[in-house]
Amino acid sequence: MARASGVAQDHQLTSVMIGLTAPVGDPLFPDFVDFLQSALRIEDGIFRMTRERAVIYLADVDSAQAEKVLERLIADFTAQYPSFSDSVPQSRCFEVKPGEQAQVKDVLKEVFAPPVYH
After folding, report:
1. pTM above 0.85, yes or no
2. Could you list the residue range(s) of the whole structural domain that residue 45 is in?
């Protein structure tokens, strides 16, 4: 993740890291992560953290664009596996603006923070 952040900083691009969290034991989440690996652009990346957690790195997008990309990817996967709509993973974005250096601990703390209920 530090390398991905460094590339974005070197090229003065906004980038986004999205934390994905699936329910424990979700049988489709590993397949979804594999799908993401094949669907992402070459400059993007995915980092598997655990069986139910992953971080997606999207280069040259802001948070709003990243959410649209994720929605499209979820829709594409759900078209192949309709039952996935019952267990869509939670997601949280961490935007890295040009000139900022994202620290792994800060990214992980933000993208995997417990949900806030109002």
Report:
1. no
2. 2-111
